[in-house]
Design brief:
heterodimer, A: Aconitase, domain 4, seven-stranded mixed sheet, 17% strand, B: alpha/beta, Aconitase, domain 3, five-stranded parallel sheet, binds iron/sulfur cluster
């Protein structure tokens, strides 16, 4: 996974609350193979009208949105379904960071597993950032080392779980670490099978 | 601390602690997973295994269930769209290749993963359970630690039977006081979500407690824990008791005989210690809870049936006002409109939230001898629920009322199998998400209990079911 430390990029403002994962990627696209890229389906029903034409007033269709790597939204971003495809859609579109006052827990964890930073800010800061993005240029710096967001001459702090921060900074994949712990897992299995034998299941029937 | 003295612990902590394989310096725990449920959507994770040419570590603890894409109107896969049939076959192939037990499309025990788990005795008190589905929180009804995970985590569990997790905070939601007739677990859950918000429990594990919770059947507890994710919680749990043990006993894959006795003895310890500390505690009075429905596009947009649609102009909080405006616009509602005046176009009774036998009985109780004014679908949570309902004659009540009695699956909860609410139509639904487009592009969803959905079917508009209850219920 690509490590995340500092990015400076265009930001896209999406001033909506509770953008759930059903909206980030509608269920009907989830049969597709990841190899085709999921970016084209990101927020599909908001981005396109009934005839499949881009809605001109939707922020992701604005000039420059294709280059944006930071998305800013209101509270409860990524609530709902555990579909990791929601993160695939964001990542494949080019987003590396979402700034919002709160995130669905499963979404946030999926994001980190794909190198995407869920940066949590206060509601007031989210509102200010959204306003600034409308008025000033849309260039923003997200600095994970110092947990800072810089926009024009304003600086905001964000929070991210320290465990996730380390993981993102190093581009770590959990599997690499767990692979070195096979002995511990086998030890647990053995001791637990004796302590809680009723948990065991027979194989396929 | 002196040796032998133990910090008082919550139910959640007891189950968590019993599964820690090792702890990392940064505080993350490697948790052992007792049950891993997979469904059609797990293909991304199986593909990752394929890339690594890796095997599933514990196929015996991994269970496949076909539900998200299964058709509800035919038993012949050749009759449905090839891309949907392909999803179902792919799960079959992946399970077979890895020697994983599967309740596939043609299995007489097939159903929605969160209905099948408890029904088959896979779900037990004190277990850790995961599934690539957010409503895995359902299984917490048994005092299991159960939560939804994403595809990367599914792959991690397939490969290692473990998961790195950071211990969430603990939150207790107590509901004391008996609820009135006609009030169900769904009403309790929607009232909680309306009170704390759709992100109100983010970062927390909920324990539900109190006399109103103890009084719930296993079916009701499953509904309540199912909806934990809709308040943003990592999971929801209820301490196991005699109701739980009685439900588990005799289930096909549950421990039996002397092993069951041993298990029950251990399960008796699965309760929060009297002085265990919670990071947050919320108290609700069961007597205050009315039949509750949603009017907007988030489960937190819920109100008692006697209330009216909110007016964004009267809301000070700019962000909330903007959400309400967006919701009313999508839902086609006017500020101040009485909820009970909202006309509906169809009903859906089903989903892992409300498709168990008790849910179907509650809906049938209202529909018996009455006609539905709108079309609708009744989809039992599993084949076995379907069979039982048919033995009890419930299917006849539904079809006599004019509703369609179909097969089991996720169906119109998410529309992946093609059971969709047409754009612009309004559906009274027993499901869990009223998100924009959840039941189909442009579909408008009102969440409610099975009895409330049945009442709406009869009158054609959102209705207080208490006016339609029959004596002797
Ligand atoms: S019934 Fe709905 S919520 Fe439940 S598992 Fe299926 S799609 Fe998910």
């Amino acid at each position: 996974m690509t490590p995340f430390d500092i990015i400076t990029t265009t930001a896209c403002a999406l001033p909506l609350a509770s953008i759930d994962t059903d909206q980030l990627i509608p269920a009907r696209f989830m049969k597709r193979s990841r190899a085709d890229g999921y970016g084209q389906y990101l927020l599909y029903d908001m981005r396109f009208d009934d005839n499949g034409e881009p809605r001109p007033d939707f922020p992701l269709n604005a000039a420059g949105a294709q280059e944006a790597a930071v998305l800013v939204a209101r509270r409860n971003f990524g609530a709902g379904s555990s579909r990791e495809a929601a993160v695939y859609a964001l990542a494949d579109f080019g987003f590396r960071c979402v700034i919002a006052p709160s995130f669905g827990d499963i979404f946030a964890s999926n994001a980190v597993n794909n190198g995407v930073l869920p940066a949590k800010v206060s509601e007031a800061d989210a509102e200010e950032i959204l306003t600034l993005l409308q008025t000033t240029g849309a260039d923003v710096t997200v600095d994970l080392r110092d947990s800072l967001i810089r926009l024009g001459n304003r600086t905001f702090t964000f929070s991210v779980d320290p465990i996730w921060r380390t993981k993102l900074l190093n581009g770590w994949d959990d599997l690499d670490l767990t692979a070195s712990l096979t002995g511990d897992i086998a030890g647990f299995e053995q001791q637990d099978a004796a302590a809680r034998p009723w948990v065991q299941l027979q194989g396929r029937d | 601390m002196t040796s032998g003295a133990r910090q008082p612990r919550t139910l959640f902590d007891k189950v968590w602690d019993a599964h820690v394989v090792t702890r990392r310096e940064d505080g993350a725990d490697l948790l052992f997973i007792d049950r891993h449920l997979v469904h059609e959507g797990s293909f991304h994770a199986f593909n990752k295994l394929k890339d690594k040419r890796a095997k599933v570590r514990r196929p015996d603890l991994t269970i496949g269930v076909a539900d998200h894409y299964v058709p509800t109107r035919t038993r012949i896969l050749g009759e449905i769209a090839p891309d949907i049939a392909g999803m179902i076959r792919q799960l079959d192939d992946n399970c077979r290749a890895h020697d994983i037990r599967i309740f596939g499309f043609d299995d007489p025990r097939q159903g929605i993963v969160h209905v099948v788990g408890p029904e088959q005795g896979l779900t037990l008190p004190g277990l850790t359970m995961v599934c690539g589905d957010s409503h895995t929180s359902t299984h917490g009804a048994f005092g299991a630690l159960a939560f939804g995970i994403g595809a990367s985590e599914v792959a991690h569990v397939l490969l290692t039977q473990c998961l790195w997790q950071k211990r969430p905070k603990r939150m207790r939601i107590t509901v004391d006081g008996a609820t009135a007739p006609g009030i169900t677990a769904k009403d309790i859950a929607l009232s909680i979500i309306a009170r704390i918000g759709a992100d109100g429990a983010q970062g927390h594990a909920i324990e539900y407690a109190g006399s109103a919770i103890r009084a719930l059947s296993m079916e009701g507890r499953l509904t309540l824990c199912n909806l934990s994710i809709e308040s943003g919680a990592r999971c929801g749990m209820i301490a196991p008791d005699e109701t739980t043990f009685a439900y588990v006993e005799g289930r096909p894959l549950a421990p039996a005989g002397e092993m069951f006795e041993r298990a029950v003895a251990a399960w008796h310890d699965l309760a929060s210690d009297a002085d265990a500390a919670f990071d947050r505690a919320i108290l609700l009075d069961g007597r205050d809870i009315a039949p509750t429905v949603t009017w907007g596009i988030s489960p937190e947009d819920a109100l008692p049936i006697g209330a009216s649609v909110p007016d964004p102009a009267a809301i000070d909080d700019a962000s909330r006002a903007s959400h309400v405006r967006e919701a009313l616009d999508y839902m086609g509602l006017t500020p101040g409109q009485a909820l009970a005046a909202i006309r509906i176009d169809r009903v859906f009774i089903g989903s892992c939230t409300n498709s168990r036998i008790e849910d179907l009985r509650a809906a049938a109780h209202i529909l018996d001898g009455r006609k539905a004014r709108v079309p609708g679908l009744v989809s039992p949570g599993s084949h076995l629920v379907k069979q039982q309902a048919e033995q009890e004659g419930l299917d006849r009540i539904f079809t006599d009322a004019g509703l369609d009695w179909v097969g089991s699956g996720c169906s119109m909860c998410v529309g992946m199998n093609g059971d969709l609410v047409p754009a612009g139509e309004r559906c009274a639904s027993t499901t869990n998400r009223n998100f924009k487009g959840r039941q189909g592009p442009g579909a408008r969803t009102h969440l409610m209990s099975p009895a409330m959905a049945a009442a709406a079917a009869v009158t054609g508009h959102l209705t207080d079911v208490r006016t339609m209850l029959r004596s002797g219920a």
